Amino acid sequence: MAVSKQWRDMAKDDYFWKCQCAKRWPSICKRPNLSTMSYYKLYQSFYKRQNHQILHPPRLCFDTLEFYIDIWAGDKLIYSDVVHGPVFDAGIKLPPHRISSVLGYHLQATEYKMMLAVEPTFKLPLSQPVSVSVLVGRKDTNKLARIIHKAMFDYIDRSSYRAMAFDVIDISPTYRFLPNIRGWISLLFMEGGDECEIDVFGIQMDFNDVANSKDEVLWLLDMLDWK
What we know:
This protein is of the alpha+beta class. It has helices at 5-11, 14-24, 39-46, 85-90, 101-108, 214-222; strands spanning 65-73, 76-84, 114-125, 130-138, 143-152, 155-157, 162-168, 182-189, 197-206. Strands 3-9-8-7-6 form a five-stranded antiparallel beta sheet. A four-stranded antiparallel beta sheet has the order 2-1-4-5. Helix 2 packs across helix 3.
């Protein structure tokens, strides 16, 4: 339409768009009429997937959430804490000096991340299996939901200084049509150390398979199987 007046006049003809629709969806042309929708509007609306959809404000907020994180090395509890939602939401503002530049860039990136600074740091032994469980609680309703249950840190990426575990989160039966959604938790560790253990200074949790913004994360948490 922007090429010339002649092309614009041709493109205004709805028969042209009916031909385009017939190439993509031949059966749609068998409809007796399209009510108030023109073929141009039909083609414009459906010829490609719309990736940017409006997300309504979430019903949950981090002020009413608490996260219960427990980490074991074998049968020994090596970390246990109740993390208030605003703390997890705020992330790590002042990372320690003894971290790699790769991890430093990750912490400064603009994409949304739920992160927690671990104070004091703790040692993660590499000679035995390490597992993690995460529950989340709502202070407004006193209900709990499970995010991660005894997931193993099977993958330690020394190039990005993260140990990672995941589990399929417990979604409410109301949303049983949703596919298996994974919750990921990463232990962020410092440079140095040895082959036997690593020094953990932070914890990150994300749902990057489906939720990449704060509002998307809150909507996903709202869909958990609260009990």
